[in-house]
Amino acid sequence: MTLPVPVGIARRETEPGRPPTIEIVWSDGLTARYSPRLLRDACPCASCRETRAAPVVRPLLPVLEPRDTLPLAVAGMTPVGQYAYAIEFSDGHTSGIYTLDYLRELAERVTPA
Ligand SMILES: [Zn+2]
């Protein structure tokens, strides 16, 4: 059995003023829309996985970095070989390599389009 692969990747505008979502059409017909926030929160790089695994300590009055107040956007997606995409975010984070398997797994978590 062949695993589904993306046959189309596009940016889709949702509402004015909100960053576009990433739409992936899979070879088995599933269309999934990924919000930049979902992708960023699911970043598989070592440092983000460590951050997620660490106990969350939230200050009572969180100090927002200026970049935290801007809507997060996907700045670019670059194919890595045949099996993955490197995703660049507008907050400057570029170390996440999203394998097709992982993107597919995330697709199950997002609302089907
Ligand atoms: Zn990361």
Task: Outline the structure in words.
With 113 residues, the protein is of the alpha+beta class. It has a single domain (6-51, 72-107), classed as NE0471 N-terminal domain-like (2-Layer Sandwich). It has helices spanning 36-41, 46-53, 66-69, 100-107; strands at 6-12, 21-26, 31-34, 74-80, 84-89, 96-99. The chain has a three-stranded antiparallel sheet. Strands 4-5-6 form a three-stranded antiparallel sheet. A hairpin with a 6-residue loop joins strand 5 and strand 6. The chain is globular, with a radius of gyration of 15 Å. The model has no long low-confidence stretch (mean pLDDT 88). Zinc ion (ZN) binds next to helix 2.
Question: What ranges have pLDDT less than 50 throughout 5 or more consecutive residues?
Answer: none
Strand adjacency order, main sheet: 1-2-3
Shape: globular
Number of helices: 4
Question: Gap between N and C termini, in Å?
Answer: 25 Å
Instruction: Count the E strands.
Output: 6
Q: Class by helix and strand content?
A: alpha+beta
Largest sheet: 3 strands, antiparallel
Strand content: 25-35%
Order of helices and strands: EEEHHHEEEH
Average pLDDT, all residues: 88
The amount of helix comes to 10-25%
What is the CATH first-level class name?
Alpha Beta
Give me the Rg, rounded.
15 Å
Using the coordinates shown, work out and report the CATH topology.
NE0471 N-terminal domain-like
Overall structural domain count: 1
Bound molecules: zinc ion
